[in-house]
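From the shared-data thread, chain only:
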Amino acid sequence: MVVTIYIILIYDITTDQESARIQRKVFTTCKKYLTHIQKSVFEGNLTKLKLMELEKQIRKYIRQDKDSVIIFKSRD
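Structure, as C-alpha coordinates:
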Protein backbone atom coordinates (compact mmCIF):
# COMPACT_ATOMS: atom_id res chain seq x y z
CA MET A 1 0.00 0.00 0.00
CA VAL A 2 1.38 3.39 -1.02
CA VAL A 3 1.08 6.02 1.71
CA THR A 4 0.54 9.59 0.59
CA ILE A 5 1.10 12.75 2.56
CA TYR A 6 -1.13 15.82 2.22
CA ILE A 7 1.14 18.77 1.40
CA ILE A 8 0.67 22.52 1.49
CA LEU A 9 3.62 24.33 -0.08
CA ILE A 10 4.15 28.09 0.14
CA TYR A 11 7.04 29.99 -1.38
CA ASP A 12 8.28 33.56 -1.31
CA ILE A 13 10.85 34.88 -3.78
CA THR A 14 12.66 38.13 -2.98
CA THR A 15 12.09 40.71 -5.72
CA ASP A 16 15.27 41.59 -7.62
CA GLN A 17 16.74 41.17 -11.12
CA GLU A 18 16.57 37.36 -11.03
CA SER A 19 13.23 36.98 -9.25
CA ALA A 20 10.97 36.70 -12.33
CA ARG A 21 13.01 33.81 -13.74
CA ILE A 22 13.19 32.05 -10.38
CA GLN A 23 9.45 32.47 -9.77
CA ARG A 24 8.67 30.91 -13.15
CA LYS A 25 10.96 27.94 -12.49
CA VAL A 26 9.61 27.31 -8.97
CA PHE A 27 5.98 27.75 -10.12
CA THR A 28 6.44 25.33 -13.03
CA THR A 29 8.15 22.77 -10.81
CA CYS A 30 5.44 22.95 -8.13
CA LYS A 31 2.69 22.69 -10.77
CA LYS A 32 4.12 19.32 -11.92
CA TYR A 33 3.51 17.81 -8.48
CA LEU A 34 0.75 19.81 -6.77
CA THR A 35 -2.43 21.79 -7.45
CA HIS A 36 -2.10 25.57 -7.69
CA ILE A 37 -4.35 27.22 -5.10
CA GLN A 38 -3.24 30.84 -4.90
CA LYS A 39 -0.37 32.99 -6.18
CA SER A 40 2.44 31.09 -4.44
CA VAL A 41 0.45 28.36 -2.66
CA PHE A 42 0.09 24.74 -3.77
CA GLU A 43 -1.55 21.66 -2.24
CA GLY A 44 -1.90 17.98 -2.95
CA ASN A 45 -1.11 14.42 -1.96
CA LEU A 46 2.38 13.06 -2.60
CA THR A 47 4.31 9.96 -1.72
CA LYS A 48 7.50 10.45 0.29
CA LEU A 49 9.53 9.77 -2.86
CA LYS A 50 7.66 12.39 -4.91
CA LEU A 51 8.02 14.90 -2.07
CA MET A 52 11.78 14.32 -2.00
CA GLU A 53 11.94 14.80 -5.78
CA LEU A 54 9.98 18.06 -5.51
CA GLU A 55 12.22 19.39 -2.72
CA LYS A 56 15.36 18.48 -4.68
CA GLN A 57 14.13 20.27 -7.81
CA ILE A 58 13.08 23.39 -5.91
CA ARG A 59 16.47 23.61 -4.20
CA LYS A 60 18.05 24.12 -7.65
CA TYR A 61 16.31 27.49 -7.93
CA ILE A 62 15.74 28.83 -4.40
CA ARG A 63 18.44 31.13 -3.06
CA GLN A 64 18.97 30.12 0.57
CA ASP A 65 19.91 33.64 1.66
CA LYS A 66 16.96 35.44 -0.02
CA ASP A 67 14.03 33.14 -0.76
CA SER A 68 11.92 30.79 1.33
CA VAL A 69 9.83 27.68 0.89
CA ILE A 70 7.59 26.30 3.63
CA ILE A 71 6.10 22.82 3.34
CA PHE A 72 3.34 21.72 5.71
CA LYS A 73 2.85 17.95 5.89
CA SER A 74 -0.13 15.96 7.16
CA ARG A 75 -1.32 12.40 6.75
CA ASP A 76 -4.97 13.47 6.51
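The first helix runs from residue 19 to 33.
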